[in-house]
Task: inverse folding
């Protein structure tokens, strides 16, 4: 019990519950009405998945700067397939996922074969993808594609949006992957101590490629959610996702050096950031205060983690 | 000539200042700086043959030199912390905050141009030092700290601009700003002798590059920063106050970011909120193309200036050939990947040859 209370996840959960309750009371329970709740959860789906996409590469001690732009590119590509190539929606969705995974795979292969730092490689691919994302349809906007997909994007089960359930399912799968599967454990072992991992017969290169591929795949999932839930996409999608993609795992207690992941922490952190967003919208606060607050929260969370580590003497 | 702006920067950072042991054992063609010079020369020749307008001194070359000045200083701002193996994700926003301070000083206090610059540099150094202090005290990864700072400053700068100005920029134009923006040395003559067509902002960048080069090459402070970057534990055991060196490097980064913000404001002719928005990618491009590692412990100032020159030559050239901004990004990214892969291949080949010949 004591151990549970001390975890980062517990602190985050407590803060999330208290924050949510406070906001609900402060808005005269307007927050709990069906419409508001629906919007709250729908817009939580993308930050959750994108945070997980970053978390997967952080697990092996890498970073993926291309994650936001890749989401935008996949979204534009699948919209193009539906509108201009007149492909059915399921195929376009599969194509978005495959495209994300493919770009991720390329990132991974570049990192492994050139031995260039992943930060730089993804910085370069981010720049390339920015050009490609724009190249799909210029400054134009795609809308009015596949009514079926739009219906899925706006549907809800028992008052909970389907896209949020999808994001939650992705999180569960990610958690199971890191906890139960051999590949997931290998990824973490390689991230925690590459040398020891190699001596134990784990291919660090394979772990790097796998992590980048999964990260790309998750960016593809985020793209599908964007296309389904928003109803219109243009070349600016993904621009504002890069910083939140780091904020969620870092607040959630994922170490940048690799070897440690926390799916629950990442999801809770995305929830908290969303809470700050909604507070801003509800009280009509200057949008810019949100950035200020999130910056403070990121730093505060990391400092808190440090302090806790010191107090417990690193007894983990 | 575009390349004419770079040779004066050569003295501060001979390759020997970079990875001293490697340059002694490897053949000269393994030097990434040489490759950059060749690529720049080839590209300049290519662009000038495709569009003669590329060699127009007034319309192309003077603005190009002004752009190179800005982005070379941006690269140096990142280089200052790369020397430690750190990153500064807030480099653009530090520039934005500093230029806000400059604009405020000109607007409310009516200070002369250089005094305002000094105010901005002080603000930049202070915010950089703050980042360095948090990193040194808590031991938290520099990426996280400066990322959080970037978030915070993003909000702060916008709020400050909406409070202090009507829109997104200061209306004030301090005396001398217009000259800094439009004039070249060719506009100033001593009798018969006129200066070259070099914009007035170039000397600022040159002085910065020389100073940073000298710092890392000859000054005790710079050498100690590099040692801290190469091996913090060894540096500490050798009696180097590593915490203070971390703070110093980050303060230098903030100061250079502020200078870059000032130069961009001079080029644009206004102190506006969007300054620094486009700094993050070029800040890494220039040093990394120039052969500075992310691992810390070795820097190349000349390489950074050359890296900035290369990117700006590509931008300007493709721009003249009427490529759209988004196409430019595509090609810049591909060039970066190609350059890095080639660099890697060259290093591997050179190492092999060094091994087989010894």
Result:
């Amino acid at each position: 019990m004591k151990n549970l209370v001390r975890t980062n996840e517990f602190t985050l959960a407590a803060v999330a519950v208290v924050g949510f309750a406070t906001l609900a009371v402060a808005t005269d329970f307007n927050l709990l009405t069906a419409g508001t709740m629906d919007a709250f959860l729908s817009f939580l789906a993308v930050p959750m998945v994108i945070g997980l996409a970053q978390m997967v590469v952080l697990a092996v001690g890498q970073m993926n700067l291309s994650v936001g732009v890749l989401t935008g590119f996949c979204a534009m590509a699948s919209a193009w397939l539906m509108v201009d190539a007149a492909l059915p929606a399921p195929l376009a969705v599969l194509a978005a996922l495959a495209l994300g995974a493919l770009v991720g795979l390329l990132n991974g292969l570049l990192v492994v074969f050139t031995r260039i730092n992943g930060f730089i490689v993804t910085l370069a691919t981010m720049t390339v993808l920015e050009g490609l994302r724009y190249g799909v349809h210029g400054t134009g906007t795609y809308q009015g594609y596949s009514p079926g997909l739009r219906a899925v994007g706006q549907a809800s089960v028992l008052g909970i949006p389907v896209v949020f359930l999808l994001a939650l399912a992705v999180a569960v799968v990610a958690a199971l992957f890191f906890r139960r599967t051999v590949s997931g454990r290998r990824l973490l072992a390689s991230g925690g101590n590459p040398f020891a991992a190699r001596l134990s017969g784990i291919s660090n290169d394979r772990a790097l490629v796998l992590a980048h591929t999964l990260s790309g795949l998750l960016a593809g999932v985020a793209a599908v959610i964007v296309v389904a839930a928003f109803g219109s996409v243009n070349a600016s999608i993904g621009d504002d996702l890069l910083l939140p993609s780091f904020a969620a795992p870092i607040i959630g207690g994922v170490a940048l050096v690799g070897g440690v992941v926390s799916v629950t922490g990442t999801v809770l952190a995305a929830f908290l950031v969303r809470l700050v967003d909604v507070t801003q919208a509800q009280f009509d606060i200057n949008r810019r205060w949100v950035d200020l607050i999130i910056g403070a929260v990121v730093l505060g969370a990391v400092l808190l983690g440090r302090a806790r580590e010191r107090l417990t003497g690193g007894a983990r | 000539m575009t390349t004419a702006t770079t040779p004066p920067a050569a003295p501060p950072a001979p390759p020997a200042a970079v990875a001293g042991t490697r340059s002694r054992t490897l053949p000269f063609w393994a030097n990434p700086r040489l490759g950059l010079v060749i690529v720049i020369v080839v590209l300049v020749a290519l662009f000038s043959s495709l569009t003669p307008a590329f060699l127009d001194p007034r319309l192309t070359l003077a603005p190009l030199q002004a752009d190179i000045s800005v982005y070379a200083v941006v690269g140096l701002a990142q280089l200052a912390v790369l020397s430690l193996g750190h990153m500064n994700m807030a480099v653009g926003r530090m520039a934005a905050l500093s230029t806000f301070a400059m604009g405020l000083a000109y607007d409310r206090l009516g200070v002369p141009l250089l005094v305002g610059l000094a105010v901005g540099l002080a603000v930049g150094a202070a915010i950089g030092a703050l980042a360095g202090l948090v990193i040194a005290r808590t031991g938290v990864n520099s990426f996280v700290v400066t990322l959080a700072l970037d978030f915070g400053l993003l909000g702060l700068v916008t709020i400050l601009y909406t409070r202090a100005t009507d829109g997104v920029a200061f209306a004030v134009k301090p005396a001398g700003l217009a000259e800094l923006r439009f004039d070249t040395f060719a506009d100033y003559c001593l009798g018969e002798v006129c200066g070259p067509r070099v914009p007035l902002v170039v000397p600022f960048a040159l002085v910065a590059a020389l100073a940073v080069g000298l710092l890392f090459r000859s000054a005790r402070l710079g050498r100690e920063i590099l040692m801290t970057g190469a091996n913090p534990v060894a540096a500490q055991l050798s009696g180097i106050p590593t915490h203070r060196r971390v703070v110093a490097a980050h303060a230098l980064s903030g100061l250079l970011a502020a200078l870059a913000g000032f130069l961009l404001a001079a080029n644009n002719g206004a102190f506006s909120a969007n300054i620094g928005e486009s700094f993050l990618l070029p800040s890494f491009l220039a040093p990394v193309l120039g052969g500075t590692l992310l691992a810390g412990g070795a820097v190349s100032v000349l390489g950074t200036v050359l890296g900035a020159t290369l990117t700006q030559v590509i931008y300007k050239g493709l721009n003249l050939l009427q490529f759209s901004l988004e196409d430019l990004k595509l090609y810049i990214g591909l060039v970066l990947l190609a350059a890095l892969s080639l660099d890697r291949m060259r290093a591997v080949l050179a190492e092999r040859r060094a091994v087989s010949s010894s």
